[in-house]
Amino acid sequence: MLQRSPRARPSRAQGRREAAETGGPSTQEGDARGVHQLATLLMELDSEDEASCLLAADALYRLGRLEETHKALLVALSRRPQAAPVLARLALLQLRRGFCYDANQLVKKLVQSGDTACLQPTLDVFCHEDRQLLQGHCHARALAILRARPGGADGRAHTKEAIAYLSLAIFAAGSQASESLLARARCYGFLGQKKTAMFDFNAVLRAEPENVQALCGRALVHLALDQLQEAVDDILSALKLGPGTVVPELRSLKPEAQALITQGLYSRCRALLSQLLDTGAPLEDEDTQGLLAVGQALIKIDAGQLDWHLLLVDVLMARGSYEEAGTHLEKALHPAPTSEAARARLGLLRLKKGDVPAAARDLQGLAEVDAPDLSCLLHLLEASERQSLAQAAAWEAGTLLDAGQPRRALGYCSLSVLAGGSSACHLRLRATCLAKLQEFGRALRDLDHVLQETLGDSDLPRRVEDFCCQGRLLLSLGDEAAAAGASVQALKPRRAPTARLFLLRGQLCLEEQIRRELGPASSRAWTLPRDRAPKWAQPAHTPS
Predict the structure, then answer these.
(1) What ranges do the domains of the chain cover?
(2) Phi, psi of 252, deg, nearest 5
(3) Which residues contact 507 (CB under 8 A, 6 or more apart)?
(4) What Cα–Cα distance (Å) separates residue 407 from each residue in 195, 371, 435?
(5) Is the pLDDT confidence value at 23 over 70?
(6) I want to staple 171 with a disulfide (CB 3.0 to 4.6 A). Which of 26, 119, 159, 351 is the partner?
(7) Residue 501's closest CA among 544, 452, 460, 537?
(8) Peptide bond just before 534 cis, omega within 30 deg
(9) Which residues are CB-neighbours of 26 under 8 A, at least 6 positions away?
(10) Which ranges in 452-526 belong to alpha helices (H)?
(11) What is the DSSP code (8-state) at residue 539?
(12) Which Pfam families match (predicted)?
């Protein structure tokens, strides 16, 4: 009757609590008087019956007769000093009466008994304010134990004692136990009970999905269970909600754990940023809000990592904040850039200001070092900006090739390929450069891409040159059969232009050999005419 609910069959705990608190005062008092009379009758029949004694004490408590309640509980305690139901009631009653020392001793005995099965029905009888008193007392006591926790085996014992107090606090608080659940979860983590800690963190997050401390705690448990991706997910969510709470948590980790988390965050954000840029759609602030929070947090954790600064710069540029990105980059790189990746960011910012040649100079260094990173940066440019950059890079590459500096030209060649969308003219230019550097395999791959394109009749001479170049590269790699096949392919489009190419190539080779054997002065007389091809190479005349 003390726990009767006015509604039909809710959950057991909810029913007891609602019956104790939501009924009208007159109804509750009437029920309590009836229960007390019944309990008194039962005690007259069996004075040793503990259940009847506790029922009478509960009825007296509901009637507000605290002194009589205290006396009844003392009688019950004298018969069974370690009875957890009696200890719990006495502790709550003493807290209500303001006797904190007595309450603390009773709670301590209750903790030592280890019997918590009785707590839920016992606490359902007491009012919300009294349960709050017990919850606050137990939580504070647990924190005091943890603050005084020594190292070693004694530390584990103290932690277990704190867990017992926190469990009492959780029982008393009911659904409002997030702080106690968080503290208990950390205690379980300290003891190595990872799955039990996970249970408490999940309990908090079910009630409060945006609890930053619970997200951080669960992330660390995931990390301890070698679940790095899940850990990164939780930290990302926490950083979006409260970076000021997350950063101190991460800075307090051991170096190995901190490195795993920070590198995981960096890799995840790099991948997310690339995905966003690949779509080609304009980015909204909400798309990059989490990335911005991660970049700023990583720098606060370890400002000496250049990669963290570059990530933040890229996010700022993706948001269109080029001036802010430039200011941060200058501070991070003071007094001078230290990597090709950093120079590339400077180059992109220069391009945004219209200095295309300087941008090409800064960006080309990354083309051969980290092409995927450069591709990601190029997605930040407009189509017209990429076209201008590709043209400037190709022009500089051609100048360097003419000057006999293929090694310096290679970066510009690769930049023109990436910025120009792998167009055939830029691929041919890089293939020429690679051939001069005797990187025949790479040159051949570029030509293969060119030969996969479909050309019109007006481009047949160029296609013949491509096949001839492919044949020379294959011959340089020692694949004579494939080289012969490429030469046959060159003859298919139009026989005469191909023959003329072979003739000119043969003349050049012969002249070079003559110069080596006779010297420059004597070889002038041996220069072969190139104004016409031999008869077998001339195109046949077809009747019109």
Answers:
(1) 223-336, 504-537
(2) -85, -5
(3) 528, 530
(4) 57, 17, 11
(5) no
(6) 119
(7) 537
(8) no
(9) none
(10) 460-476, 480-491, 495-518, 520-523
(11) P
(12) TPR_8
